[in-house]
Design brief:
The protein has 252 residues and is an alpha+beta fold. The protein is built from 5 helices and 11 strands; from the N terminus they run ββααββαβββαββαββ.
Length: 252
């Protein structure tokens, strides 16, 4: 028996971010031994791609954390009255295009500097990023549902005279279009994404699709798929095709 078709759909469940990515193999028929080899490849691939996505998003938080150590961010104590924080954020955003915007909040939650000047003066005291800063915790928020699609992240800024004192927050918006461009470069079973090799990224339980390679190449995608949630190999039958699905959970 021969493998007639391959349709790839990787499932990566990321605990640090409520996302699921899917890669799915569709078979009309396959020998048991070949199926086992493909299963091994699926597990390896989903684990690898899951970790890379996790590292890319965690790296954004690491960047924010390292930038808060720059002495210029102590100017949040004076609400950036000299404008130096504003200039720094504009320069960093140009150098790091994953960030659609970078903003600095004072200890009251007011944006006193931003690479997007439209944010300056806004009061973000009621947001998750500000509340997490008060708890001395980094934050990764939900991906926005309206354009532009972004994911908010933030890091508290501590005083150089006392590491226990929070003097502000450094917040960023991750540009989801940049993440989608990276997702489009992932090879599936050694092949580029196309009509027969599919990659999806969804919110938990498949409630929202954040990336679908079929749509990226201009193909109409099926409205929804019953997404397996458990890590490992499973089978799925939908649309008259049998699928072998690999699922991975990464550490947050």
């Amino acid at each position: 028996m021969k493998i007639k078709t391959k349709l790839i759909l990787f499932i990566l469940t990321i605990s640090m971010l409520p996302l699921t990515a899917l890669a799915l193999f569709s078979f009309l028929s396959a020998k048991q031994g070949m199926s086992g080899l493909i299963s091994d490849e699926l597990v390896t691939t989903v684990d690898t791609e899951s970790k890379q996505l996790e590292n890319r998003l965690a790296g954004a938080l690491n960047d924010l954390s390292s930038w808060t150590l720059q002495p210029i961010f102590q100017d949040l104590l004076t609400d950036d009255e000299d404008g130096e924080v504003q200039l720094t954020l504009q320069r960093l955003q140009q150098q790091y295009p994953l960030f659609r915007s970078l903003s600095a909040l004072n200890e009251s939650g007011v944006v006193v500097a931003s690479s997007d000047e439209a944010f300056v003066g806004a009061n973000w005291a009621g947001t998750l990023i500000y509340q997490r800063s008060l708890e001395s915790r980094p934050s990764q928020g939900q991906i926005s549902t309206s354009s532009p699609i972004v994911m908010p992240v933030s890091i508290p800024v501590v005083a150089d005279y006392d590491a226990e004192v929070i003097i502000g927050t450094l917040a960023g918006e991750l540009d989801w279009s940049v993440i989608q461009q990276w997702l489009a470069t992932i090879s599936l079973a050694g092949a580029p994404q196309d009509g027969a090799h599919r990659l999806l990224l969804t919110a938990p339980n498949g409630q929202r699709t954040l990336y679908d390679s079929l749509e990226a190449i201009g193909t109409t995608a099926q409205a929804s798929l019953p997404i397996p949630q458990q890590r490992g190999i499973s089978q799925l039958q939908t649309g008259g095709l049998n699928y072998l699905v690999g699922t991975s959970h990464t550490k947050g």
